[in-house]
Amino acid sequence: MEFTNRDLNKTIWVKQTDQENNRVWYKVDATGKTLGRLAVDISKKLMGKDKSYYSDFWDAGSFVIVENIEHIAVTGNKLQDKVYYSYSGYKGNLKSITLGELMKKNPSKAIWYAVRGMLPKNKLRDARMKRLKIIKGTTTKYDNFKPVNLYK
Known about the structure:
By secondary structure, the chain is an alpha/beta fold. Helices cover about 30% and strands about 15% of the residues. The protein contains 6 helices and 6 strands. Strands 5-2-1-6 form a 4-stranded parallel β-sheet. α2 (about 35-45) links the parallel β1 and β2. α2 packs across α5 (about 105-120) and α4 (about 100-105) packs across α5 (about 105-120). The longest helix is centred in the first third of the chain and has 13 residues, at about 35-45. The radius of gyration is 18 Å and the shape is globular.
């Protein structure tokens, strides 16, 4: 899209079909990356904040593939100190797991929780999270979409 001086005061309106067709696939290698800083970049791509027609009520984001999640880095004492809680609703059934235990058991959940927490808490969050593909190791499953490397 090209803008002129006349267009500065007009709202950009992009059709939903155009947004669906212009979704880009990004690939990220998580080896050595810090969990929180990686989650920030992923959530921006999922929301579509890098697009010129971004709006908070549109789902204009892209797809993100995260590979090698078992090699992600965490700073400080977060492996022992950061605790994730889950509560079923029954008395005495509050379960907790530290980040270190979660990384051993299921490292994809750690990235999933971090990215989900950085997305806006609204109706679009579940649709955005479905576009996040988290993979242990590497894969060629999504190569037909020609993913672009997020970090060059």
